[in-house]
Amino acid sequence: MKICIPIKCDNGLNSQVNDDFDSTHLYLIYDCINSAVTVIDDRNYENALGAIIADGVDSIITKTMKPAAFSVLTKRSSLTMYYAPDTICYDNIERFNKGDLLELSLEHLAGLTGCGGTCSSCSKDCPSK
Known about the structure:
Layout: E1 2-7, E2 26-31, E3 36-41, H1 48-54, E4 57-62, H2 67-76, E5 80-83, H3 89-97, H4 106-113
Parallel strand pairs: 1-4, 4-5
Antiparallel strand pairs: 1-2, 2-3
C-alpha cells in the first residue's frame, strides 16, 4: 500500500502537509510495506497524478481538496482520501497505520473549502454545480 501526501517542501517524513492538495508541486509518496519515501515534483511530469496512480498509490492524505478534483479522482480511480489532522507527514502516517484518520467525503470537503461551485476553475465534474 502506498500513500500520497501533498507537502510544502521536502523534509522526508518530517515534511509539513500542504494546506491544499491542489496548490502544491510536491507530493510525498510513502510505501507502507518497505517504509520507503519518494517525493514527486509535478513540474517534472506531464501528468503527475496519473504517474502517482500508476505507481500504485492507494490513498491520499490531505487537509483539503477541491470538490471537483475529489469527484473526478473518486470516479476515475480507486483512491481513498483521508483528512490530515496533523501538520507533519509522519504523524498522519502513524494515524493512518492505526486506522485513526477520517475518510473524506464531498460533504466534509465542502465544509473545509467553503466551495460553492462558483470559482472559475470549476469544471463540469464539480458536484457543487
